[in-house]
Amino acid sequence: MKIELDSEFSTSNKIISYSDVSFTLKETQIKTNLVISKDRLIENWSVDSYQNLATQHLDQFISWQPELILIGTGMIPSFPNPELIAYAGSKNIGLEIMDTGAACRSYNLLIDEGRDVVACLFLPDN
Predict the structure, then answer these.
(1) What are the average pLDDT values for consecutive 10-residue runs of the chain, which has 126 residues?
(2) Which of 19, 51, 68, 96 is most solvent-facing, going by the fewest CB within 10 Å?
């Protein structure tokens, strides 16, 4: 699904489109789970599924000092491990769980608002 046209003058990482098998950022197509912020990108993220996400995985993104972490869980939003929410909250960082499509759209909107957000996105077919 195409979600937003990116300005050629934009310096932020934006998600142009996503499908069941890939994400598109500007002219780059990524066929793996990823982590994205306005100025950072981790392709081939070592976490292979949402169910394997643990607090130690959040530490790297917390060091980026976001105000919010979005987690896209695939096709269907899943309830998170309560430990993840408590851990992010203890660092004064919000943590939102949603399906990957909603996470992509929310990420772009928040970046456009100038917010510091990190999105951890799992492909819908995972």
Answers:
(1) 47 88 91 94 89 90 94 84 91 94 96 95 80
(2) 51
Take residue 36 and report the two structure tokens written for it.
Answer: 């994205």
Per-residue CA distances from 84 to 4, 53, 87, 99 (Å): 30, 8, 5, 17
pTM, full prediction: 0.88
> Total domain count for the chain?
1
Q: In terms of C-beta density within 10 A (0-12 exposed, 13-18 middle, 19 or more buried), how is residue 125 classed?
A: exposed
In this structure, what CATH number is given to the domain that contains residue 61?
3.40.1230.10
Q: Are 121 and 33 in contact (CB under 8 A)?
A: yes
Residues 99 and 60: their CA atoms lie apart, in Å, by: 22
Domain assignment present for residue 4? The answer is no
Do residues 13 and 39 lie in contact, with contact meaning Cβ atoms separated by under 8 Å?
yes
Tell me whether residue 9 is in a domain: no
